[in-house]
Amino acid sequence: xxxxxxxxxxxxxxxxxxxxxxxxxxxxxxxxxxxxxxxxxxxxxxxxxxxxxxxxxxxxxxxxxxxxxxxxxxxxxxxxxxxxxxxxxxxxxxxxxxxxxxxxxxxxxxxxxxxxxxxxxxxxxxxxxxxxxxxxxxxxxxxxxxxxxxxxxxxxxxxxxxxxxxxxxxxxxx
Length: 174
What we know:
Layout: H1 22-40, H2 43-60, H3 67-89, H4 107-122, H5 125-136, H6 141-148, H7 152-171
Helix pairs in contact: 1-2, 1-3, 2-3, 3-6, 5-6, 5-7, 6-7
């Protein structure tokens, strides 16, 4: 799985009436793609999910009080939906491995990144979401709880259990 490109595609709703969404789009597009890519394990799906999330934000329009939080929650929810569909698709295995490193990636870096992604994928969904939102997204416990729709105590539990499960696997990478 390769990293998403840093280029932000042109804003799709230029000239549409209502709030000026382009600054939000420019500042949150790449982060939304990475968030969805980490949650789903596939940055190509992450791009689609980010685009869908922005489309839903445009549909919601001025009714949204906190566009950044709405966007983040939408990305998480769309990622969950994508994962549900992928579970069904995995019943018929694909011979091509999505974790195969690209020709231009260093072998060690690709192996370590693949191992981390694989370790994250083995975690239960809620633990993976909590870890990605807290440590990748650099969100506070309250923001993670709000995004996931759970209490802060539940977030702490998911983080603790996820880190405990990842520790032996990440230790092996050293």
